[in-house]
Amino acid sequence: MVFSFVAFCYMLALVLCSALLFFAVWRIAAYDELWRESNAASDPTDCITKLERERKIEKLCRMLMKLALPEYFIHCLFCVMFLCALEWLALAVNLPLFCYHSWRFMQSPDKQSAADATHDPSTATQAEVLAYCRREGWCKLGFYLLSYFYYLYKCSGVLPRGLMLINGIGQNTTKHNQYSSTRRDQYHP
């Protein structure tokens, strides 16, 4: 099966967008867990010790740090692919989130892991930081979900068009129209 570079871009975007959807869902779950852990610290009936709670919070923050850089890289790859394929609408849709990811990366003190203040265990449990991160996670999930269906729509439109051109259908429509009009004239005077 032969297909164009545009079709390849959309198919790869579908696969990678699935990974970004997983990252977004995991991020939402992790920040929800951080929110529960920070609220449980004030609960006197909780049997988990303070040290165990701090370890759990540090573990969640480390895992969130590990997800940031791959997410930024995948989204940058989307923008480069759509730029090379001259898909301007897909690029324009992805550009604001790319700029946001670039800004977050430039703001992070540790460029190797793209860790910023939201991944620091002491900062991540603050109420306003958690609220911001949870809202960011839900917004990204919505964006990636809409992007997934847009890529699916474009992929389903690009693949059949490429296959029709390969098989020779739709290239010479004037000849087809001539024959259909003469047949029509024969039966309907």
UniProtKB/TrEMBL annotation:
SMART domains: Cornichon (SM01398). It holds the Pfam family Cornichon. The chain crosses the membrane at residues 7-29, 72-98. The keyword Transmembrane applies. Keywords: Membrane, Transmembrane, Transmembrane helix. One of its GO terms (biological process) is vesicle-mediated transport. It is found in: Membrane. It comes from the Eukaryota. Its main location: membrane. One of its GO terms (cellular component) is membrane. It is a multi-pass membrane protein. PANTHER family: CORNICHON-RELATED. Belongs to the cornichon family. This is Protein cornichon homolog 1-like isoform X1. It comes from Petromyzon marinus (Sea lamprey).
